[in-house]
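Q: Is it fine to ask for two folds in a single conversation?
A: Yes, each is treated on its own. Send the first.
Q: Here.
A: Result:
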Amino acid sequence: MNVDLSGRVALVTGGSRGLPREMVLGFARAGADVVISSRKLDACEELAAVVRTETGLRAHAFAAHAGRWEDLDHLVDVVYGELGRVDVLVNNAGMAPLYPRLSAITEDLFDKVVTVNLKGPFRLGVLVGERMQAGPVARSSTSAASAPPARR
C-alpha cells in the first residue's frame, strides 16, 4: 500500500516494541515524522535512532506514563512546541496484568488498569483532539467553504 504521510506527525504511545514499534516504522517509511512515547526512554531513543538512520526523518523519543495526566500534558506541549502538530495519534500504551481469578484483582490493581487503559488515553485524545480542531480546518478554500459550522 502506498501512502504518503510526508509533512505529517504521528504520535504513538507504548511505541517502543512489538506491534506499535512496527507502526512507528510504518509511519516513518510513509514519510511521517514520529514521536515515540513510553515509560522507558532508552527503548524509545533506540527506536528513534533506527527511524532517523533508516528514513532521515525526525524521530523524537519521549518518556511518559500513559496513566499520569501531567506526563501527557507535558508530552503534548513538547510535541506541539517542537513539531507544531499531531496528525496521527495511536493511543497504544496499556496494561493487561495476569491474575489467578477475577476475585483476586485488588482495588488498587483495578484502579491502575483503568487509569492506564482508559483515563490516560481519554486525556491524550482530548488534548490532541482539541489542538487538531483548533488548527487549520482546511487546506484549500473550497474545503473551507464546505466545512460544517462549529457547534456550540
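Q: Second one now.
A: Result:
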Amino acid sequence: MSIVHVPDIPVALSTSSAYPETCAAAFGLAERLGYDAMEVMVWSDPLTQEAGALKTLVEHHGIPVVSIHAPTLLISQRVWGNDPWDKVDRSIELALELGARTVVVHPPFRWQKEYAAGFTDGIALRENDTGIELAVENMYPWRARRRDRSREMEAYLPHWDPVTQPYDHVTLDLSHTATARSDAMAMAEALGPRLTHVHLADGLGSNLDEHLVPGRGGQPCGEFLERLADTGFTGSVVVEVSTRKVSPEQREVDLAEALAFARLHLATVPVME
C-alpha cells in the first residue's frame, strides 16, 4: 500500500507575479487563491519598501512574508539609492522586521567592480551578523539579439552561475536556467543543502527571461519539485511568473494554475513494503 505525503514546503507568491498590479493587490490574490506566504519584491511601489505597511497587509490577509527580494535588478537600480550594499542592508532590515528568513540577491553587474570585489565576503559577513539567509540567485549570460546568437556577454561578477561560488545559500530560478540553457536538475544536485530557496517559473530557452507559468515551457519543473520533496527541502518555493501582458481574469487563472502545479508535484508517494 502507498500513501501520499505532502511535505511542509510553503508555496509563496512573489508580488512581482501580479505586476502591473500593486503589492496590495498581490496579497489579495494570494489570499483568494490559497497561497501559503509571500515574497516581496522591493521596487518603486512604496508599499514594498515600508515594514509598517507590509505588516498591515500581513495581518489583514493572514499571509506571512517568507522572503524579501532586494532591489538589485536593472529595473530597480534607483530604488533606495545607488549604493548596492545599502540596498542589501535595508532589505535585511525589512526581513528582520517582518520575520522573514531569506533575502534574495542577484550577483553584481560587471560594471559594479567595487561591489563585486567584496561581494562573497560581504554576503558571508552579513549572514553571520544578522542570521538572515542571503540566497544568491542564479542568473544567465546576456546574448545578442541578432542572427549571430553565439555572441554572449558575461554580465555578472563573480559569475552568473552560483554553483562554483562559496555561497552558503542559493536561490535557484527555473526561468533563469532556461535562459542560461543550464541543467536545473544537475545544478540542484551540485548545490545540495546550499539550495535553500526556489523561484518557480518556466522558459523555452530563448534569449529572454520569460518567467512562464510552470508546465508551459521546457524546464523540468515537475521533476524538480518532486526532487525537493524527496530530499527533505526545508526552504520555500516562490511562484515568480510574468502576467503583465494578460487581463486581470487571466492573471488569476495563471496564478491558480501555478499554485496547483506546485502542490501537485510537491506531493510524494513513498513506496510502502
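Q: Anything structural to flag on that second result?
A: Two points. The beta strands are 11-14, 37-41, 65-69, 102-105, 133-137, 142-143, 152-153, 170-173, 195-200, 236-239. The two ends are 7 Å apart (CA to CA).
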